[in-house]
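Appendix B. Chain record.
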Amino acid sequence: MAILYRFILCVVLSSFLSYQVFCQEIFEGRVLDEQNQPIENVLFLNPQTKKILGESNARGEVTLNWNANKDVLISRLNYYVHKTKLKPNFTIYLKEQSQELQGVITLGTRSLNRVITESPVPIDVINYKQIVNLSGRADLTSNLSYLVPSFNFNKQTGADGADHLEIGTLRGLGPDQTLVLINGKRRHPTALVALFGPRGRGNSGVDLNAFPSSIVSDIEVLRDGASAQYGSDAIAGVINIKLKKNASKWNLATGISTYYDYDYNTSLFNADNQYYSGNLLDGNTLFLNINKGWGLGNNGGFINVSLDVLQQDKSLRQANPKDGLPINTGQRAFSTPSNNNISMFYNLELPLTASKNPVILYSFGGYNNKISDAFAFSRNWSLRPNRFPRNSDGSLIFVPEIMRITTDSTKQIYYNPHFQAAVVDASHVIGLKGTTRNQWNWEISNTIGFNDFHFYGSQTFNASIIGQSKPNNFDDGGFNFTQIIQNVDFTKSFGKGVIKNNLNLSFGGEVRTEFYNIYEGEVLSYKALPNSLGQAAGSQGLPGYSKSDIVSAQRFNLALYGDLDYKPFKIWLLNFAVRGEQYSDFGGVFIYKFAQLLKLSKFFNIRGSFSTGFRAPSLQQINYSNTLSSFSGGNLVQSRIVSNRENLARLAGIPKLKQETSVNYSLGFTWKPIKNLTLTLDAYLIKLKDRVVLSGLYNASNPGLPLNLVNELNVLNVATVRFFTNAVNTTNNGLDIVLDYNLLLNSSQSIKFLLAGNVQAVRLDQINVPSGLSGNQALIDNFFSTREQYFLKNSAPNAKFNFLIDYKVKRFDVGVRLTYFGLVELTGVGISGDGVNPVVATDANPNVFVPEVYTFSPKIVTDIFASFKVSNLVTVFAGADNVFNVHPDYGIVPAAKNAAYDNETGGPWDAVQMGYNGLRLFTKLVFNF
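Structure tokens predicted for this chain:
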């Protein structure tokens, strides 16, 4: 009778209620993958409301209340969505795929049940742990560049400190205009501020390779201004790295990759010993990645740990002689640096109670140590003997283990100094989170990040030491950066009846303290010893930091934010965000954001946003200085990058640095015309004011400079100076497109098509020249030269498209990726040497001059990959990146080949498009047990 009574009651109530709460039962079960391994963070959703009913823990276990007669939607990013009815003690198997657009996201919203196609702003979600083995690229940054078209990176050469880092850009903006999070927590930037190279000049950024990629599970890329939600740096967007939570499997991957550039490897054409050369297979990279998870406690806790070890050799390239370019005497060792990298990281969660809403302790962090070795530009005895060790009579002290001699009739003597970087990176996050009795979700956390960048000179000289050739190794000093953050956040879904869970309110605060230091190198790394030969001072290649460069700076800022999601109707989602921040060194900002999503049908959504944003000038930009000593006209003079805090900057009319500000517009749609096919298209416009840039060089002899500035330069005996300043307004506009089609052919076959593209342009709206540097047109032109303008406007190709086909059948997986790189244009410095409207003489007539603009025409790169699952424990991967050995066009003016190598790298190519290393072969072994 009791059972019959309950059944009748359920039938009656269901006519009045939209959900059968009294008919629900308690279900317990597990979620496993195809290898019978548990899957954590699988969401069980109400198919109609998308409300989360339960989530699997690190053991794949889940408990939830539901109706046995109703379907439940089971979703996990990068797994096929599953819909089924539940049974007692159920076991559900999910099938993996490369990307699943219906997964729940955490970026761009503080609501707890937002799916990606219902986001009012564009977000890419990438299952990194699945795709990392499908390429010979061993680092996260370069892999991301081939997965997200609006994200761009390639390795720089001839860019001093930037040679040793892998920092990318989003939507054509600077690397420090994209915010990076790990598990939703702000990641600290590197201590380096880039001074040279065609990309990111005057910028800092986050090194995405300063932690092991083997601990990365998913990557969320928010392609929209989000400063109002996340704070400084989020003008271009946000990248959120989500760490693995697996608590059972060992995952071990090892492999090798090598470049086979059969067109431009210097070993092919170095009979006269004009260049440094190695083997035809070079840039060899060996890696070992280890990841393991363990359960903690009895309530679903876990700790996941990774160790990555990487060793990468140099690769050496030059123009092929058959193409008619002259011998490159300025950069005889045109090369990507070698790299030895070891990194460790952990991710931990531990419920402190066994209640339904436990308080959870979480923590993650790690340590990275990288030793990188790069070549500086060549020193040639016939051109610059003052860069070589000499006797008092001026004769050369030949050092055979460092110097080289060409074997042609000229018998040129040369050497390339090495400059090395020892980079240490460490971070630690700890926090608590939970839910109160009245359903407020709360979280408190503390984050510490540290980056130290220490330079060394190797196989080089301080040429001002007369009569001896040693020392050959120098401690050049360096700089470090520390960031400490405390966060507190509250979130709750409100409402009853019709608006149940349709209102989500979040608010919180952040306290951030930052420290920046420059420390001195050994004296001989920068000092000029007295001599009558005009010998250059300091370590050749990279002079050290002197006493005048030492700085210790800090600042403090407080931020408060509010965020509101509201659905006034089922088809309409509104998002409002506001944020205020107060900085101790430049003042306060207030910004806001509005975004909305309109569901015109079950399959078609329109979305758009408007926001204001900002980026605080970094401590690196405010406080960096460097003094280079050299002889000019027989006198020792100083060339200085002036920190913004110095009086020299005020004399030039440059005020203290302030925040960059932005206005962001975005409009787009998501469309699912048929099952398994999703199309998203988003247009954007970003107007930026007061961008921080690095000025051109000025010296006391320039006519039109303020008298006080000239006098100060003469007193300091400074030959040239340059400054950091808020000076440039720009407009970035573009279009992002993602077309994703996943088809499950049958139980053993699936195929995926993915087309993702970005079309963009950067317009330079205004250059605001400081009063002290605008005395005449020559000073104005030199402030932000034509060459610098090209660098800013061409930080990314004008278009980039990725097309992927991935076919899986049983144990086999085979695929091809095509990447289209659009047009890039840069310039050289020209015959004037200042980059102002640069021109060069033609080969045919030295009295005829042409503009020195380098056009890198569009190119297509083809990657192929395949894998075979030998068993449930072992998978073999192999393939080739850039299988047709495609390179950018030479960085030359075709009519003026004799003026080649007048670019930023000093080599045949600038760091653009796919880079210059060519075809790469790779193979990997992956073990799961």
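Further analysis of this model is presented in Appendix C.
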